[in-house]
Write a structure and sequence with these properties.
The complex is a heterodimer of chains A (about 350) and B (about 525). Chain A is α/β, with parallel strands linked by helices and about 350 residues long. Chain A contains 15 helices and twelve strands. The two termini of chain A are about 15 Å apart. The chains are: A alpha/beta (about 350), B alpha/beta (about 525). Chain B: InterPro entries: CLCR, VWF_A, vWFA_dom_sf.
Chain lengths: ~350, ~525
């Protein structure tokens, strides 16, 4: 998937400075762990508090970023772990590198649709979403895909005339599925629903679902290549009224600023979690992965960056108090679509881009 | 497409332009080439290939240098040319980052997109129309209700004229073109070839109202102020907000928005990309976002900073940018060769004795190359001069047979001979006389000379002749090109007098001719 490798050194030097000690002087061995990570976690590992928390456990981290699907093409010799943003590329990496056992998934984040109050109300009034009030809404994927198939426009939805910006074909903006994880996962969720609640696997199923995938993508025209860019356009008031982003981006935004304006978060009733999955390549890599999932400070910091730590939900729940109008504390009622194999997903993405 | 896309036709020149030929935004200021090679890498400095539109960001660059210790060294260039440079690998090792108004077109070229590692949108600005307040009243417009169709109707009724930048050179022009095509075709989603074809007749009407074309927003602004008889400008909201007497309207039926992504490059090393990341991070801090919106009237991309006062927060539909290169290039091609008013140009070419040898062969080479860039319907007059005008040969690039006109231009070029004195002003008068008569074209004069005026009229004589011009002839700009031993002051004065702009052909004559295309 034509993704370019980013080799970005993050946090290594800062870690040594913040830790303020030298292994020989203190006698505490500081281990340097080298990893390749998805870019959406770069801010987390560059956060001075994260650097400090890792140093307190004796680790200095050198992180380089890469598109999750591009890690397969990398020579990972000398790395302790790879940390893509979803399970499918992790599974392929594990197989390629002969990694056995359970792959740690320290945190995850579901894909959500960000919108504005007006657009969300029109969707709800036309049976495409549940009403939004003191809790986030739910986007009905079946109804949405049906509208997409028929290329319904906003003008055809009742109530849209009150909002000048709601004209043109109704669609969700996603990133380019051939280069970006969230765009690919959008096709995973949509193809699952279009395939009658079954993961697309056979050639016949690809054949059957590909035309709709093509519609979902072609109406968008030029697509952003990163979820960050798509989200920033939305924040600046530009772009389509419905944008697919990671829940973690919304959570991080709410953490930075209190006034969320008329932001509305819609959870698709069938979505895909971005499961940040570690492929440990060395013992140190595995230990660090476990630390990310178990250390209370690191879990809390993951929440601060909007991620949901695996296991107990208490941290995320606590952090979302006061923001339940935007974020679901628990993902009950949100169905997780399994992700097709990467060969199938790539084929869907290729045909969607046309 | 009958002809190569404008971008493709200009590919061989793109790098010449990148070498620093960009001129300042004032009417007649040509900068001498820098002595230092702009491509030398320096630690702590990022060499940035940047859209010309970012030249208003200097105070922000200074702030970033203070905050991060990283110096930004921009090379300004048109967006499509920048994409060409990336796609052909010519940015490798020469630039550390790319910062365009938008990466939408870049993403349509896989060879260019593969060069980019990460992109960080920094600010945004939608395409808008700035209309003189008196015109808004005359038309009885309520700004919040105005649509592209209303603009089209005003043009059709002869009640509105405007200026815009050349879509093949400038992202603001390209975005405007996409917005107009989307709105007038009634396309409900991303433009297709069929939409472009369908909107053709209405777009032709729309572009009949275009009175000014420009390769840069800066010259467009000064030409607009000078002319006084043009009612509106199409450009980014951020540019239009800089005018005092314009009502800035974001059409109700949709806009195309630039999001200015700072992009790091695969061909650079980890330390460089780390610098780009730090700069991107610094650009998104509240303080810098505030500085950006206050200083440049662009909109912030962080929710904690409100847009500067005067920027209307109400929402607009975003018209999708084409998702395929064939649609984008097809639209550009239609604009250049079918939709816009054709250009009509007299090339006043110094072929005096001093041009003998290398200078004349450079001129011939540059003109011959330029023929690949002439548009359908364009009228080109070659007017070589020495002690007086030697010949007047006019050719038209006919859509049904462009090659006949183009090869005639090349044949005339090959016949140029160096001989005689240098009668600049007398020859310019001949050019103005030739261009008499009202025609529905973008009309201009290009003056290429390698020396001072030595025969015929003097500067005062020409000035008094120019004062006597009336009607549309008074609006014809002269674009002089510095070459050889030409007198910069003399040429600057001609540009200023006629509302033209000076170009520097001393480094690359091809590059100067090519850059002027944006103004024709």
């Amino acid at each position: 998937m034509g993704i370019v490798l980013a080799v970005l050194l993050i946090g290594g030097v800062a870690a040594a400075v913040v830790a303020g000690r030298d292994s020989e002087e203190t006698g505490t061995a500081t281990k340097t762990v080298r990893m390749v990570i998805g870019s959406e976690k770069a801010a987390f590992f560059a956060d001075p508090d994260v650097v400090e928390a890792l140093a307190a456990q004796g680790y200095t981290v050198e992180a380089e970023t890469s598109g999750s699907w591009a890690m397969e093409g990398l020579d990972l010799y000398g790395y302790d772990l790879a940390f893509p943003s979803s399970r499918a590329p992790a599974a392929e990496l594990a197989q390629k590198h002969g990694v056995r056992g359970i792959l740690p998934r320290p945190f995850y984040s579901p894909l959500v649709v960000v919108s504005r109050r007006g657009a969300a109300e029109v969707l709800a009034a036309n049976g495409l979403a549940t009403p939004v009030g003191r809790t986030p809404g739910t986007l009905k994927m079946d109804a949405y895909l049906d509208a997409a198939r028929r290329e319904r426009t906003w003008q055809q939805l009742k109530g849209s005339e009150r909002y000048g910006e709601l004209t043109g074909t109704l669609f969700i903006s996603s990133t380019d599925p051939q280069t970006s994880n969230s765009g690919a996962l959008y096709l995973a969720a949509a193809s699952y629903v279009a395939n009658g609640g079954k993961v697309v696997a056979s050639d016949a199923e690809v054949e059957r679902t590909a035309p709709l995938m093509r519609t979902l993508v072609s109406v968008q025209g030029a697509q952003q290549s990163s979820t960050d860019a798509a989200f920033r356009d939305f924040v600046s008031g530009a772009g389509n009224p419905l944008v697919l982003v990671y829940e973690s981006q919304v959570a991080a935004l709410l953490d930075e600023q209190q006034n969320a304006d008329d932001l509305v978060v819609l959870y698709p009733d069938t979505t895909v979690n971005s499961d940040h999955t570690v492929v440990p390549l060395t013992d140190d890599g595995r230990k660090l992965a476990e630390l990310l999932g178990s250390d209370p400070t690191l879990r809390k910091l993951a929440v601060r960056h909007g991620f949901r730590p695996q296991g107990a939900i208490t941290e995320f729940t606590a952090a979302t108090v006061g923001r339940t109008a935007y974020l679901k504390q628990q993902l009950t009622g949100v169905r997780q679509a399994p992700v097709p194999t990467s060969a199938v997903l790539r084929e869907l993405a290729r045909r969607a881009r046309g | 497409m009958r002809r190569p896309s404008p971008a493709a036709a200009r590919r061989h020149l793109a790098v010449l332009l990148a070498a620093g030929a960009l001129l300042t935004a004032c009417t007649s200021g040509a900068e001498p080439r820098e002595d230092t090679d702009p491509h030398t890498a320096e630690p702590g400095t990022l060499r940035v290939l940047a859209s010309s539109e970012l030249s208003d960001m200097t105070p922000v660059f200074e702030r970033i240098e203070k905050d991060t210790g990283v110096t930004l060294r921009p090379t300004y260039i048109g967006t499509l040319d920048a994409v060409d440079i990336l796609a052909t690998g010519k940015a490798d090792g020469r630039y550390d980052a790319v910062w365009l108004s938008s990466n939408d077109y870049l993403r349509l070229r896989p060879a260019a997109a593969d060069k980019v590692v990460s992109e960080t949108p920094v600010m945004s600005s939608p395409v808008a129309i700035g209309v003189k307040t008196a015109t808004v009243e005359r038309l009885g417009w309520k700004p919040e209700e105005v649509t592209w169709s209303a603009v089209e109707k005003a043009v059709r009724d002869g009640r509105l004229t405007y200026g815009m930048t050349d879509p093949a050179r400038s992202n603001s022009g390209f975005s405007t073109l996409v917005a107009v095509a989307s709105a007038l075709s009634g396309a409900q989603s991303a433009l297709t070839d069929a939409d472009v074809a369908k909107a053709g007749p209405r777009m032709e009407e729309f572009f009949r109202g275009q009175r000014l074309t420009s390769g840069s927003s800066g010259w467009l602004a000064s030409a607009f102020a000078r002319r006084g008889d043009v009612d509106a400008l199409l450009n980014y909201e951020s540019v239009l907000e800089g005018f005092k007497n314009l009502t800035v309207i974001r059409p109700k039926d949709g806009v195309v928005t630039a999001d200015y992504p700072l992009s790091s490059l695969a061909a650079t090393g980890p330390a460089t990309r780390e610098d780009v990341r730090r700069v991107a991070e610094a650009l998104r801090t509240d303080a810098v976002q505030r500085l950006i919106t206050e200083h440049t009237h662009r909109r912030p991309v962080v929710a904690s900073v409100p847009p500067a006062a005067g920027l209307d927060p109400s929402r607009r539909r975003e018209l999708p940018f084409p998702g395929s290169r064939s649609v984008a290039d097809g639209l550009l091609d239609a604009y250049e060769n079918e939709l816009r008013r054709p250009s009509r140009t007299v090339y006043v070419l110094d072929t005096s004795g001093s041009m003998e040898g290398e200078r004349l062969s450079r001129l011939k080479q540059a003109l011959t190359r330029l023929t690949s860039d002439f548009r359908d319907r364009e009228e080109v007059t070659l007017m070589p001069f020495g002690s007086a005008v030697k010949s007047v040969r006019t050719h038209v690039v006919r859509p049904e047979d462009p090659e006949t006109g183009l090869s005639a231009i090349r044949a005339d070029t090959a016949r140029l001979r160096a001989e005689g004195e240098t009668a600049i002003y007398t020859s310019l008068r001949t050019a103005y006389d030739h261009l008499g008569g009202d025609r529905d074209t973008f009309t201009s004069i290009v003056l290429m000379t390698d020396g001072e005026n030595t025969a015929g009229d003097d500067a005062d004589g020409f000035a008094s002749f120019h004062r006597g011009l009336t009607g549309e002839r008074r609006d014809i700009p002269v674009f002089p090109i510095l070459f050889g031993d030409s007198d910069r002051t003399e040429l600057e004065h001609i540009a200023e007098l006629t509302g033209g702009r000076l170009f520097d052909g001393r480094g690359s004559l091809d590059g100067a001719f090519e850059e002027i295309r944006g103004y024709q």
